[in-house]
Amino acid sequence: MEDKARSQPGPVVPLRPPGLSPAAAVGSEAQFEDVRRAIERQSYKAALEKAKDLHKRLASAESRALLVDAYIARIQGMLAKDLTAEAKALADLVVSRFPEAAGRLGGLQRGLAAQTGDVAALAAPLADPNATPQQRAEAEQAVRQELVDLQALATSPALPEDHPLRVAAGELARAFAAVTTGEVDEAAIELAGVSRRSPLAPWKALIRAIASLYRGQDENCRRLLATLGDDAVPARVAGVLHSILNESWDESLTPAGRRLAEKIVGQRLELRTTLRALDEAFSRKDTREIPRQIRQAVQLCRATCPEKLERLKQHISVKCVVIDYPPASVRSAMGGLATRDAYFYRLFARALESRQAFLEACEMWDRFRNAAIEERLFAADGPENAYLYLHMAELLRHMPPEHLEEAREDFRDYLDDLEEWEDFDEDELGPSGLPRRGTRTKRNLYFLAPEQLYERAVALRPDAEIYRQWLEYVESVDHADLKPDPVAQQWAAEFPEDSRPLLHLAESAEQRDAFDKALKYIEQAERLGGVDPKVKRARFRLLVAKAVRHLKQKKPDLAAKDFVQIEQLPDAAQKDRPAFVLSLKWIHAILQGDRALATRLHEQVRDLLGGPVVAAILLLSTAREGAHNSTETEQLQKWLTAYTEKDIVGATVRVCQIAKDVNIETLLPGKWGTLLAKWFKRSDGDLDSAGLLTMAEAALPANWPEVAYYCCGYGLQKGGPLQARLLFLRGKSLPYSEEKRRQDCYAAALELARRLRDMDLVAEIMDASRRTFGPFGGFGPFGPGMMDLDDLAIDEETLKKVTDFERRTQEYPKGSGLPFFGGGGPPKLCQCPSCRRARGELPPPRPRRKTRRDADERYLFDDIYEEEEEFEEEIPDLSSAVRPPVTGLPPELAGLLEEIVRLSGGRAPKSLRELEQLVGRHPELRRKLEEAMLNDMSEDELDALDEFEDEPPGPFWPPTRRRGRKKKKRRR
Length: 972
Fold this sequence. Notes:
Helix 2 (29-40) packs antiparallel against helix 3 (44-58), helix 2 packs parallel to helix 4 and helix 16 packs antiparallel against helix 17 (309-322). It contains 48 helices and no strands.
């Protein structure tokens, strides 16, 4: 009743009491000063009483203003003593008696209304249609700065039920209650109905910050707290959250805020400090500190948050595996083994992936799958299994297939090492603490076979992309039991509207010279109604290949029918294809003995291509493809020696473009390599980037590395979208000694190809990198079977350095160590006497003078010095048109010798040094040659090679067997 009486307006104080003369105001200045001093001394009650008495006597404007000041001071004093309700009642009384004080007490009244739960007074202007924009802005600011009870606003009758602010307050109240009582999902804190401009937006940021805090997303929590602002109500608890994040108490915290932080954190702050110390001990691999910190962390976790104890033990176990810490001491420190559930195996698998232990990671993913099915996380036939199979297959694809096959054979022994983390009984453990042999049953290692993983994946989730990956893998494997055609046939049966498996089947049939069968697949693909350009090119290519085969078989009548089918194709008139068809007819005319027709066809080809040189190269290349040799071809070969370099350049580019289109090999005279190398060393031959690329692609198979090197350099200077392939060919053209520079070119080309999404070029670069830097590549930095996209990663700065260097460097390296940017060994030091003396080294020994021997002087072991000449005589001459069969050699070596002769321009190498230089420029040929030599060795010879394991292999020294590989038992 007293509060109600105080809230009622009292009698208005008159400005001048009756009977008081102006003379009574004389000497009141001292009383005014007395009231002000009382306010300064915070004697608000006494100051108010004196101000009332003074205003009763004077009733002047000055006394009235002083009385209002005393009332406001009294209200502030009440607020300091937490007398919120009394302060609100007094403020309402002052505003009712002194309207001029409403401007000074308006904000205070709104704040007091929010604190006392009077949300109606706070939000009333927002529901008043007659309120001015300024009044609305002031009300929204008051809600932002003073509202502390969201539920009160959500249920306030001052606002309509469909008012946006009331609806938003209801959503925020429910989300705040959820986020402060337990774990929430993202949908519960979405709060799409709260806009950025809403006065309740800081509450939305606070709710999300609290959710991030409990999820362990510290950086996201800090980012959200920074958006609260300083004047919003939620900002009052920002200090508490910052204290929890920083794990230290903020000095600006109020006692209530400190109590709240302590209630939330409790002993978890000590636990976090211990876990940080444990991480530091792990990073230092401190064997003494790790067990002590583990014990302390487990004890604190058991006391503060026992529900997290098993998770902590699982993380500690996996961390110890990553750093190769002995598991026995970890078990003792943790008080037992961690729970082996799906979460543990998933954590273990991710840790092994980070170490690039892909086989072991697949083992853990298989255990995760079994545990997850047992825990009913997903069904055995669910799509999750399919994605898991694909992930394991992707991990195994990091290893070349040939090394994966060997690793799969030896992996069962490695499983015993992993089992030391299994929960074995004491009687199953050996003396060293490892499981005894035979304590586990034989497992199905399907998870180490990508073909089985793909087969299981498509059985659970039939998808064309999975079939594509499966087919791509099987094509890359050289294994008798893995054939790509059954995969393509299954793909075509599952997805009959997809033309990709039909194209593969057509290409496979084409490789077997089953052209009719290949054409049937192409017809089936054409009936699908697609516009795939590969299908259109395939029909033309197959008909051409069929005609060439008939020309090889000396069947001109069948070839003539093929010509009719080719000319009926719409694509036969595109580009320079008519000239190529005429070249086939030219061979047909020669086979039939019609010399006049052959001459006319030769002239037509020359007219279409615009020159005799390009016509001669095309006719010779076509004749070689059709295995035809005659006096006409010999005459054309003589003609090609009478033209200038400029004519040769244009003709080569033109014919190479035709050959690439129709899938034949270009025949280029070996003597042109030296001429073109000198030509391109001086200028770019007036070629654009596409022409330079075509020239480089033709120069590498022709064993013209310098020509390819110069063409790529000019192409890089011109810029354009062909930079990635030019860099790749630049790396391939480098000599064998420039491995580091080749690696830089491959890495830069790979990064540019990934940016252009040229996945065919990416696959080509990775394949070349694995062959070049793999186990048969000499001194590759990656080791066998461990190369992937990450190994050729390159940052933006290094990419720019590599591309700039290759653009400005035009001199072909002659075995010199040019700079590279991808890391490597120490720089080469100058060995001159002055530099050695400056480094404190002894001067280099003087070279021994060579003495000439007399012509009649004989050495005791002259056959040692004649080894090179004897080796030269052993190489058969295969440069003739009809090569004699190579006898006395394995078929693999005989085929490789023919390839060497072809790369050297149709002649055999003259010396061992020339042969080494030739093979050094072709890493793939070198690899095949070494493999063939290794396969041809006996077991005794292989055992003898083990004595030279520490010596690097030479260009023709067979690589030693991998260390650690079991020797096969000899049969007695």
